[in-house]
């Protein structure tokens, strides 16, 4: 038996032409019309890339700093030693990692959004890799979260850095702002995100790079994006 749509969902679907491919400008303006939750919903982009993540050279994983941030208050944990601890504090890190924090992570107490570490601390973090890894929180050089430049990494994380990676089917999901952002800021954030995605196209990936793209809010249906326009954002 088909699930009955709620009145709210039906009203939102009526605002979208499901057969239309929207330009980025149209999609951004339309997505702002879909606000229906009592909180400031996240604007999310979803992409299906023509890559095979089973091959290491086609696994896309990186980060990008959005020009207008994500609208999210990001809590940053840092694992470092010596003067790097002071650097992390000065840059605004919320938690400085030590044995006590490792113990909390092992107990499942994770109250941070991103983890940054100096290279010499990765051996220590290996003890909680099985916990942080599946949550996408394990520091990685590709996302700039394993670095000696702790101040810059903390600043980026606080200022709107988005980490992303392809799943097993070549999909990427990311938040690029909030419904309360004006359309121009959302458009600029989306363009910056897509410029990074296009730069990361693997040389071994054949055929059309972006198969599908969609924009949505946390609680809304999705709007189909023009993939050709997305691929031309460089």
Quick structural summary:
By secondary structure, the chain is of the alpha/beta class.
In CATH terms, what is the fold-level topology of the largest domain?
Ribulose 1,5 Bisphosphate Carboxylase/Oxygenase
Question: What's the quaternary structure here?
Answer: single chain
Domain count, please report it.
2
- So what's the overall shape? globular
Average pLDDT metric: 94
First-to-last CA distance: 46 Å
Structural class category: alpha/beta
The counted number of beta strands is 9
Low-confidence residue ranges: none
Q: In CATH's first tier, which class of the largest domain applies?
A: Alpha Beta
What strand order characterises the main sheet? 7-1-8-9
Return the CATH architecture of the largest domain.
2-Layer Sandwich
Q: Please name the fourth-level CATH homologous superfamily of the largest domain.
A: Ribosomal protein L1/L10, rRNA-binding domain
How many helices?
9
* Helix/strand order, N-terminal first: HHEEEHEHEHHHEEHEEH
Rounded to an integer in angstroms, the radius of gyration calculated over CA atoms is 19 Å
Q: How many strands, which pairing sense, and closed or not: the largest β-sheet?
A: 4 strands, antiparallel
What is the share of helical residues?
25-40%
